[in-house]
Amino acid sequence: MTRPTRTLPVKRAAHVYLVRDGHLLLVEERMDDGSIFYGLPGGKANPGETLGDAAVRQVQYETGLTVTDLTFVSLLEGELLSGTRNECYATFGRFTAQAHGEIDPSDPEVVGVKWVPFAQVEGLVRYGPPPECEERNPLIWVPTRDFLSGEARSYYPI
């Protein structure tokens, strides 16, 4: 287990792999620089909230879908964004689930929700600046790459 070298803020988040006919559901969000970010539905856990409960709540908020049969896939853990204003100790849970309902996001940051063929997911991910943004860190996407290839591990040190 990776241990922090100093006291860091803790960030806990959960994301869900929703799969249908070889497609993965991604949300489109507008970044501060105006670009579009494609990511998994999910987000930060509230204080005292389990990662599973956060996953269910955030998927509903970002997509309008209700998820059931939540199943743990993997955990990412470790220091993230070291040397930036957003450095933290991250604990990110990844789950699968069944989705029900109609796509109707209520999160104002979500500008779209789309089913993306597995082969096209990686091409939508933008790595690189700004460095303060964990979504653009390639390490965050390793578990998704493994999941899509059927080789997910249960633990990923960051």
Automatic annotation (TrEMBL):
PROSITE patterns: NUDIX
Residue intervals passing through the bilayer: none
Superkingdom classification of source: Bacteria
Nudix hydrolase domain sequence ranges: 9-138
Required co-factors: Mg(2+)
Pfam families: NUDIX
SUPFAM superfamilies per UniProt: Nudix
Keywords assigned by UniProt, alphabetized: Hydrolase
Plastid in keyword set: no
Molecular function GO labels: hydrolase activity
Name of the protein in question: Putative NUDIX hydrolase
Species for this entry: Deinococcus deserti (strain DSM 17065 / CIP 109153 / LMG 22923 / VCD115)
